[in-house]
Amino acid sequence: NGASVTNLTDVDGGEVVLYAIWAPITYTVKFDGHGSTSGTMANFTATYDEVHAFPTNNYVREGHDFIGWSTTTSIDNKIDNIYNLASTQGAVVTIYAIWQIQTFDIRFEFEFGREPIHFTGVTYGTQLSTLELPNLDLLGHQFIEWRENGVGVNLATVYANSNKTFVAHYVAKEYNVVFLIDGTATYQLQNVTYGT
After folding, report:
1. In sequence order, what are the beta bridge partners of 151?
2. Dist CA 194 CA 82 (whole Å)
3. Model confidence pLDDT, tens digit, residues 169-180
4. Strand 184-193 relative to strand 174-181: parallel, antiparallel, unpaired?
5. Could you tell me the sign of the dihedral formed by the alpha carbons of 180, 185, 189, 192, in that order?
6. What is the pLDDT of residues 25-58, one digit of tens each?
7. Single pTM value for the model
């Protein structure tokens, strides 16, 4: 490093061996949220040849689960710890949060004993009206709406963001009933409810 030395030996013509002294470099690790919707992370100072555990992740990404860190934006380069990510003193290295999209169970239930329909693995953000539901016709009844927790919903405006259960709501149809004797109307009932 250019330092001068004197009087290393008092023997005329003596030989002195000097040994190099090494210190590990330090480098800075920056944490990129990679699509996070909230949170911040302070930089981390790492030392070469030392294994460092990751600090607690403070990033959040709506509809996703945090699964680790990578040296790129791809899970293919996921790392288990901070270890020798740089070999130059003062280098700055960025690692990226890796996320997995959440999936949910969506269940559709029916009245009158009809078997429920259960969708598993519906990804976050899926518009529920795009799920393939069977014909909703029911003899003697009119389909009114889907209900969640007793409240009517329009599936075109509902998106997968949690496990959900919907119940089909029907009303019985009403009819006018006319009794005929020899082709002549003798008695008429109005607004007779199906199943009465």
Report:
1. 148
2. 70
3. 988 877 676 667
4. antiparallel
5. positive
6. 999 999 999 999 999 999 999 999 999 999 999 9
7. 0.76
